[in-house]
TrEMBL record, chain A:
Pfam families: FAD_binding_5
UniProt key word Flavoprotein: yes
Organism (species): Brevundimonas albigilva
PANTHER family (alphabetical): ALDEHYDE OXIDOREDUCTASE FAD-BINDING SUBUNIT PAOB, XANTHINE DEHYDROGENASE SUBUNIT C-RELATED
Cited InterPro entries: CO_DH_flav_C, CO_DH_flav_C_dom_sf, Diverse_Substr_Oxidored, FAD-bd_PCMH, FAD-bd_PCMH-like_sf, FAD-bd_PCMH_sub1, FAD-bd_PCMH_sub2, Mopterin_DH_FAD-bd
Source superkingdom: Bacteria
Keyword Flavoprotein: yes
Annotated FAD-binding PCMH-type domain residues: 1-223
Keywords: FAD, Flavoprotein
The name this protein goes by in its record: Xanthine dehydrogenase family protein subunit M
Amino acid sequence: MRAFSYERARTPQEAAAVVAARPGAKFIAGGTNLLDLMKLEIETPVHLVDVQDTGLDRIEETRDGGLRIGTLVSNTALASDRRVRRDYGVLTRAIVAGASGQLRNKATTGGNLLQRTRCPYFYDTDQACNKREPGSGCSAIGGFTRQLGVVGVSDACIATHPSDMAVAMRVLDATVETVTPQGETRRLPVADLHRLPGETPHLETNLQPGEMITAVVLPRPIGGRQVYRKVRDRSSYAFALVSVAAVVQPDGSGRAAFGGVAPKPWRVEAAEAAMPSGAKAVASRVFEGAKTTDQNGFKITLAERTLAGVLAEARA
Amino acid sequence: MGSAIAKGRIRAIDTQAARSSPGVLGVVTAENAGELEKGQYNTARLLGGPDIQHYHQAIAVVVAETFEQARAAAARLKVSYVRARGRFDLEAQRETATEAKDVKDAETGDFDAAFADAPVKLDETYHTPDQSHAMMEPHASIATWNGDELFVWTSNQMITWGKGDLARTLGVPAEKVRISSPYIGGGFGGKLFLRADVLLAALAAREVGRPVKVALPRPFMGNNTTHRPATIQRIRIGANRDGKILAIGHDNWSGDLPGGGPENGTAQTKLFYASDAIRTRVRLAELDLPEGNAMRAPGEAPGLMALEIAMDEMAEKLGIDPVQFRIMNDTQVDPMNPEKRFSKRQFVQCLTQGAERFGWSRRAAPGATRDGRWLVGLGMAGGYRGSPTMKSGARVRLTPEGRIIVESDMTDIGTGSYTIMAQTAAETMGVPLDRVEMRLGDSAFPSAAGSGGQWGANSSTSGTYAACVKLREAVAQKLGYDPGGAVFSDGRVRDGRRSATLASAARDGEIVAEDAIEFGDFTQQYEYGTFAAHFVEAAVDMYTGQTKIRRMLAVCSAGRILNPTTARSQVIGAMTMGVGGALMEELVVDKRLGFFVNHDLAGYEVPVHADIPHQEVVFLEEADELSSPMKAKGVGELGLCGVGAAVANAIHNATGVRIREYPVTLDKYLDRLPELA
């Protein structure tokens, strides 16, 4: 671990201003991902601004019947909130499918969205990685790719976004609220938070340097049967091979987003018109243009079959 | 600091930036480490450079005031490498493989003719992957020099081997080296040998002139330490239509660094089932992957992962129940050497009791049982592991307070050595268990069997027993009793009508006795084995292909069980490891770059609690009079042998799909699951 300096900010505005002003500075909240990355020198911040005293740890009802989730709300608190369990079941189910109880106690809402890929080549600093070291190449392509992305990927990077929570946020059309270094509030759909890698896989979000997530806003509840199904090689504490977050209405219409397949939670709204016709019709649109390897091509079949299982469960 | 390349050499290491980093006390590389030999039990050198033999071979150690400073400075070492082409793909090297040095081809009868004439035949090839021990505690050591004497606190299963190889590697006399390893956070064979942490701690402590601690970071574990090598196994079985086996052929390929050894999956095949024609062949290819070496049930575990699927397939071809098929082909003698009997073999009893308890008769045809979205199946496999013994010594002290102190360099890797050796001493000396103090894992104590090959329990308790018998003689003599007739119980010694407290014998000072058990040539006369039948119920999600294990049962025949609690713990741990091997564990080789890619616990998945259902373990009532004074054997490796195949066979029964390549992950059969409506 590289030596670093540390301070605690009292307001999000103050935190944003400090991080923006100081090259190599980073926010830290729960630290469940950042500290691991620092120990391996994948992340080497020179200064950490701890935002845990900024008071953004409440879940409030919004005027239009939704929920504003403070960025510091822990994954455990969010998943167990009465309103979330009642009205946004897919979110609770997604969160408890991720990590472990201990990690969820510490991990925060904003931090979960901003966690980094678990591509094994990203984690091995002896290997080339465009995400870790821009321009160094990608050692994953042509190597061990079974866990890696099949859609939205590029020739520079095929890493996936590992979050379960974000997949549910995406299917619920959540909005991310931020504070900019100038102290202004900005809103962007969670769909627009993460970027696709293209030629610049090290640029993972559309946040400006120093811009800090302050909340995630869920719109008014949309009802329906809400299911999150995560497929993995063991029953707990493993990242998804494929996951499906779905909201299915009594008339058969619905929404579906996919995890474990792309550099961001993957949802193709245009495909959802086919929900009443079944999983095959939806999946063929969702994975149009997919770029698979001999090791991860199964994810397309798996995603379709998993969605079929989810639809069967939702309609049972 | 580990090598960033798999094969080649170091052109230069620039240590300047590291040396001037905050807190740094010293840097050791091959350049300033002095002359180093290679340990007898090591294949690759533990400190590489300038030549590199494998990925993450240690090439430098940086010592600093704090661990974080040392790690930060190590990252500032600038190493320039010259890469060489390596051989990393076992399948591609298969044709170059040659007969392994210590494993000769074996044949009884005429396999080719018997197989050709057999009316029912099976000829299939199976794959097992490289596996990591993935023990909870990474390798770690603290070393300190006092003049020319070296003391190391470490985590090691075999104190005598570790001490010997440390002295040999450093080129110092063995009597100047002492190592201590009283507690071990898991080993599974990964700590049988001297490893880099010990050597680097010793070299670094000498360099900086103070005690140094070296702990391997988890991401080094996959490539810096040893692993269980992958195998390719071709198995041929021929039988008559009634199910009698006429021919068994087992060919096994694995790879290792030059000078290394094979992962031999054929050892059980020579002895498990009756057949007039048996042939085994083991071929070893050279690979430039990290060093392969022993992992729990080395050879036996992957061998039975293959053989016991083949037996299931053969039973299916014959239309015979797989339990019955095994019973029909049981043997009480070594099939390749029929005058040699098994000392005790209750495999058939394991099978019949297991089938009864598990409800095996309810097993349906493959793919025929559904429970909601789950395809449900039952599977079973036979388990067989030899029961070797090793010379094992102990020293026993009787204190004036009447306490018994047992000293031995035996180790406890979570197996319960402390408990069973203390029980042995308490029982033999006739004192309650809380009067016995155990001191283990120190090379200053008498050399014991150590923990490996499931020989530890039987050998070390026999050694304790031998030392206690000697102590009883000394006590009897001291009291003036007849050593042959004295009875030790309830803290007293009795000889006819005379009686004294045990403590009184040591009134004038401690009585010390030391002895060892040595095993003669009786293994020439009898075959010693432990046996099990494993039963598994598995459910496969018809949509996603995910497998859930629902029930597991092991029925074991393993001699006298020294302690039912610790023995059961060994077996359920092994069953868990078997599920890991069946469903998820694989060190994935990057065949271009020559390393195990998933070299941490996020990438190398082992089972979590949610993967493991209720496990039932039954030990048959048994005492093997021919095995040792304890009439015991081993169970630690038996518990793993056959489990993987039982899982794979259960998945086949659930889905109708046969997978011959471990781990049995859903991507291998998803497209063969039933079509969805």
